[in-house]
Amino acid sequence: MEFLSNTVALSRMQFALTAIFHMLWPVLTTGMAIYLAIVEGIWLKTRNPDYYYHARFWSKLYILNFGIGVATGIPMEFQFGTNWAPLSEAIGNFFGSIIGFEASWAFMLEAAFLGIMVFGWERVHPIIHFISTILVAVGANLSTFWILAANSWLQTPAGGEMVNGKFIVHDYFQGIFNPFMVVSVSHMFLGTLETSLFVIGGISAWYIYNNRHSAFFAKAFKIALAAAIAVAPLQIYVGHLSGEQVYHYQPSKLAAMEAQWHTTPAGQPADWSLIALPNEQAEQNDWEITIPNALGYILEFKPKLSEPVLGLKEWQPADRPHLVALIYYSFRIMIAIGFFLAGLMLVSTIQWLRGKLSPENISQQRLLMLGWIFAAPLGYIAVESGWIVRCVGRQPWTVYGLIRTADAASNLPASNVLTTLTGFATVYSLLFVAVLYFGSRIIRRGPRLDLPIPGLKDQPAVETTPGEFIPDERPVEAQQ
Amino acid sequence: METLSYFLPQVWFGILALFLFLYVMLDGFDLGVGILSLTASTEERRGILMTSLSNIWDANETWLVLMGGGLFGAFPLAYGTILNALYIPILLMVFGLIFRAVAFEFREQAKRKLFWNFAFGAGSFLAALGQGFALGGVLKGIQVDQAGHFIGTTWDWLSWQTVLVALTLIQGYVLIGSTYLIWKTTGELQDTHYKTAKIAAVTTLIGAILITIGTPIFYEYARERLFHRPLVYLFAVIPLLGVLLISLLIRSLFRKEEKAPFIWTILLFLLTFVGLAMVVFPYIIPTQITIYEAAADPSALVFMIIFIGALIPVMLFYNIYQYIVFRGKITGGHYGE
């Protein structure tokens, strides 16, 4: 247990643990916020009380997740100072500013309007309430933007240079719009949406499967499915773009993702490894199944590569990522889930087109509903796997090519970090159990369909804006 | 350029002081209410206490997130050095805030509320304690090397002076929490908090007097600043104003006024804050690192003024709007559902 006295390793573990745990909550709330704005918009437009009850029901799960998201987000911010002081000093010019923007542009907006969204139904006009819900969604998704911009900058630092151990910024916009930013923000944005859609769809499917409020939850199910028709395939495409970027900008990460030990030169066909047992000591895969020529197709849509795929042996062991098997399998898990969710969406859409999802028939789709229940947690697993690939694969760098993780950590007594790490592990385990318990309780209780509907003083013709927030692909049936 | 390198860090010192003040004032009463909830006699009362915060605590806590982000961007060296030196107080606060935050929802859902009641109260207490030690630790000073990096040990922040600061801050939070509850509640609950406010006013006063006397005696840097003309006249005014405000506060409590105690307490916080800022300025780590040494590049400071500074009025506006929406007394245990 050598790592128990290694401050850098412990600080890394603490950051990994707190980040992985924190990710679970905003990934749902950012996507679900958009969903809440949509159902509230449909309610204002159609006056069908079911959509009002949907807004009320899902916002209970929203706030449960939001509270833990806030609680677990604070350690993320402060750890940069406590455990990564040299890093903070070196990159504060850029990275610290961006963290500040996240708080002022995004988080404050979400936190302030959340109060009105959750508790303000009786206190403000429905239109003001609707605007508050939209601002919560905007705030949540702006957080995704800033956090992903900051993380992308760690992956592909741009807009300045290192001078005397500090990153001096020449052009902030170049830093924010660093090479990874647009694709990474899109990938994460779609990731939060897709995770939320399959959670909402999965929970709705559970009710339908159990014949509870089937017609009511068929509405939520169809909104989730309609959005998934656009999101699931698009996410696969954006994921591909993200992989292409890694190929160009972070070849050592790509080599670990594919467990490629030897370089494949340009102009050669490259095999894609389907399953392998990477062996870091021997610098080879002890065993693997490969698909001939497939890597060329995956990376460039052609059989022969136009650029070489570098193997891990191109770098000294100190200059390349370790935990190759973790990176390799996390990547494959993410991809498998992405395709599974898209496939589930496709099957469900076919059933929908065949009329099998009408309120009378939907409860008979038992296998399909089971599929959605099974799919509910998969989005989380895919997102976490993706982040493991992204951040473990970036090693040994914290700022790729500029600052090594070993040089970024505070010089703390290992026992301090071990104590707090143990504390986080204990508290987070407790919270995880509690959330599952209370979350499942909210779900088992079901929606309250007897709440008074807040009155609208104006007539329906007044609202013209809400319609804009309903996605175009939404089928006519969902508007009922 | 020369003026800029003085002016910009000063602007950021001011902005961060504003964020910190807003945090200490707003989350201060949240934490105070949390600590008071430990003494609440019935489940219903505790429900009302938590309801009085449920719509605002997260926005209030966000000022801390904002202060952290601002400090990180504007004074990166200080961010690293201070948080590194105060590892234990900061983590105490973090764990406290975690318990406080999750208690809101979990208690609402739980059938047996005892554990989450305790998490709420003890979490609030722990967060206040951590903040008090952090404040005390900064005022006490942090050991750094030539480059401004922390070279002290794990428990440097702990001394009887920092214990005093921590206890006084907790009293201050209880005071502002009590006066907030006086404003937001009625009946017996309000009466209880007239009492707690009176007690807290006295204990805060004792702490404040000890700190005011103790600071120039024990910290040389403070002595030099405090007794240096012409600042000495200004520093002489602050305790006098403090005494005046405390008397006004206590008078308003005896007259059973509803809003005035809260306002006097806020002014008292503000006065303390101005006093501390004047003692510390222009240091960000007292006696070691000035704001000019710790500041980020001028370009970073300008960029942040544009993107954060410009947003301050907007943030204040919608935060105030949200207080207006939820104005009035809390009657039951619920705002909405």
Automatic annotation (TrEMBL), chain A:
GO terms for biological process: aerobic electron transport chain. It comes from the Bacteria. One of its GO terms (cellular component) is cytochrome complex. Pfam families: Cyt_bd_oxida_I (PF01654). It is a multi-pass membrane protein. It is found in: Cell membrane. InterPro entries: Cyt-d_ubiquinol_oxidase_su_1 (IPR002585). Keywords: Cell membrane, Electron transport, Heme, Iron, Membrane, Metal-binding, Transmembrane, Transmembrane helix, Transport. The chain crosses the membrane at residues 20-43, 55-74, 94-120, 127-149, 188-208, 220-238, 326-347, 367-389, 417-438. Residues 457-480 are annotated as: Disordered. GO terms for molecular function: electron transfer activity; heme binding; metal ion binding; oxidoreductase activity, acting on diphenols and related substances as donors, oxygen as acceptor. Residues 471-480 have a biased composition (Basic and acidic residues). Its main location: membrane. Belongs to the cytochrome ubiquinol oxidase subunit 1 family. This is Cytochrome ubiquinol oxidase subunit I. It comes from Fischerella thermalis CCMEE 5318.
From TrEMBL, chain B:
It comes from Fischerella thermalis CCMEE 5318. It is a multi-pass membrane protein. The chain crosses the membrane at residues 12-41, 85-103, 115-138, 158-183, 199-219, 231-250, 262-285, 300-321. It is found in: Cell membrane. Keywords: Cell membrane, Membrane, Transmembrane, Transmembrane helix. GO terms for biological process: aerobic electron transport chain. One of its GO terms (molecular function) is oxidoreductase activity, acting on diphenols and related substances as donors, oxygen as acceptor. This is Cytochrome d ubiquinol oxidase subunit II. It holds the Pfam family Cyt_bd_oxida_II. InterPro entries: Cyt-d_oxidase_su2 (IPR003317). It comes from the Bacteria. The keyword Transmembrane helix applies. GO terms for cellular component: cytochrome complex; plasma membrane. Belongs to the cytochrome ubiquinol oxidase subunit 2 family. Coiled coil: none annotated.
